[in-house]
Design goal:
heterodimer, A: mainly beta, 7-stranded mixed beta sheet, B: 109 residues, mainly beta, 6-stranded mixed beta sheet, 5-stranded antiparallel beta sheet
Chain lengths: 112, 109
């Protein structure tokens, strides 16, 4: 049972480059979300989705795009990477609004 | 918007009891969750309170007072492996949680 799978685990980008962080879940969860975590801080919500074809912005959406074409996948795109986007990114899924979040293992991104 | 306050750091000794408090300000409150995160790891779910009162799961308990916008996580019989960061998070019905900044618990021998 894979749960939530994030790739890559580590990534280094130069300023201005674009990339996509992948997230897939095999639990048939409707709800998926992306968070970023900076050192010594909590998780801040970037974007979330309540089902295929439906996405919405979180607290810190600027510089990121998402799409949800299938229930399983929720990729996060960095349009033009900036040093301020250096962070650990976590994808999570859940079956309902009040159910526990299942997190992936994270992607550690450095932008130079 | 939502805001959550929790202490940044707590230190306790093995075998002791520790309480981590969380106060929140939010609209459309549905419940309060707690997550544990070890260094370098992903957050994992500990407990959820939708109603006032105490929920117990083994050595961990969580309490909620909706009228006071306050909750706490109680860890009993502390073990070294409990050293981690603990996050409270509010459910607001938007179907994505808002997290506090976390409390780093250090358990000393």
């Amino acid at each position: 049972n894979a749960g939530v799978t994030q790739t890559p685990k580590f990534q280094v980008l130069k300023t201005g480059q674009s990339m996509t962080l992948q997230c897939a879940q095999d639990m048939n969860h409707e709800y998926m979300s992306w968070y970023r975590q900076d050192p010594g801080m909590g998780l801040r919500l970037i974007h979330y989705s309540v089902g295929a074809g439906i996405t919405d912005q979180g607290e810190v959406p600027n510089g990121y795009n998402v799409s949800r074409s299938t229930t399983e996948d929720f990729p996060l795109r960095l349009l033009s990477a900036a040093p301020s986007q250096t962070s650990v990114y976590f994808c999570a899924s859940t079956k309902s609004a009040n159910s526990p979040l299942h997190f992936g293992n994270g992607t550690r991104l450095t932008v130079t | 918007g939502q805001s959550l306050e929790q202490p940044s750091e707590v230190t306790a000794v093995e075998g002791a009891i520790v309480q981590i408090n969380c106060t929140y300000q939010t609209s459309g409150f549905y419940g309060l969750s707690w997550y544990q995160q070890h260094d370098g790891g992903a957050p994992t779910f500990l407990s959820y309170n939708a109603l006032d009162g105490l929920e117990e799961t083994g050595r961990f308990s969580s309490f909620l007072s909706r009228s006071d916008s306050y909750g706490y996580l109680l860890l009993q019989e502390l073990q070294m492996k409990d050293s981690a960061s603990y996050f409270c998070a509010v459910h607001t019905g938007r179907r994505a949680l808002t997290f506090g900044s976390g409390t780093r618990l250090q358990v000393q021998p």
